[in-house]
Specification:
The chain has one domain: Mannose-Binding Protein A, Chain A, CATH 3.10.100. It is 26% helix and 20% strand. The chain contains four helices and nine strands.
Length: 170
C-alpha cells in the first residue's frame, strides 16, 4: 500500500512540475507552451483550439505563417522538448503537424529552416524514417505514431507548429 501511495505522490509531483514548466516564460493565454529551461515556447493553441486554429498549409506557407506571428516553424533540439510537444499534442485533433526541419538544400542533410546550415542533431524519427528520398523533404509529427517524426512532401497541407524564445511574446 505504501508503494502505491509513493507512486501516486510521484505522479502528482511530476504533473505539477510539468504544468509549471509548461508555462514559465511563455504566453499561455495565447496558446504558447514551453519554458525558459527548455529554451522554447511552442504555439499549441492554434492546433488544439478549434476557434483559433491556423489553416492547413504546405510547409512553405506554414513557415511564412509562423514568420508572420513573429515566430518560426518549430525546432526540436532535445528529448525534453520532444516530450513536452508529445504531451501537449496528445489531445490535438489533427493527425500531422509541420516542424521546421527539411532536407531541401541537400538530400539526406536535415536542417532547421531552409538552407540555414542549422543542422538537425537531435532527432525523434519513427523507425524506418526518413524514407521519402527526393520527394519527401519536410519533417512532420505523426499523431498515430505517438508524435514521432516522419518525412513527407512539403506540398502536403498540415498545421504549423510555431516556436519563439521564452519571454519574447510577453
Amino acid at each position: 500500500m505504501a508503494t502505491c501511495h509513493t507512486l501516486l505522490a510521484f505522479v502528482i509531483a511530476t504533473v505539477i512540475v510539468s504544468y509549471t514548466l509548461a508555462h514559465e516564460g511563455c504566453d499561455i493565454n495565447n496558446g504558447w507552451y514551453g519554458s525558459t529551461e527548455l529554451g522554447a515556447c511552442y504555439n499549441l493553441g492554434s492546433l488544439t483550439n478549434p476557434e483559433s486554429r491556423a489553416q492547413r498549409l504546405d510547409w512553405f506557407a506554414a513557415d511564412q505563417y509562423c514568420t508572420d506571428l513573429g515566430a518560426r516553424l518549430a525546432t526540436v533540439r532535445t528529448q525534453a522538448q520532444q516530450d513536452l510537444i508529445r504531451m501537449a499534442l496528445g489531445t490535438a485533433v489533427d493527425q500531422w503537424v509541420w516542424l521546421g526541419g527539411n532536407d531541401l538544400g541537400t538530400e539526406g542533410v536535415w536542417e532547421w529552416g531552409y538552407e540555414t546550415g542549422d543542422l538537425v542533431v537531435f532527432s525523434s524519427w519513427e523507425p524506418g524514417q526518413p524514407n521519402g528520398g527526393e520527394d519527401w523533404n519536410c519533417i512532420i509529427l505523426w499523431k498515430e505514431h505517438n508524435w514521432f517524426w516522419g518525412d513527407y512532401s512539403c506540398d502536403a497541407l498540415y498545421y504549423p507548429l510555431c516556436q519563439v524564445a521564452p519571454g519574447s511574446m510577453l
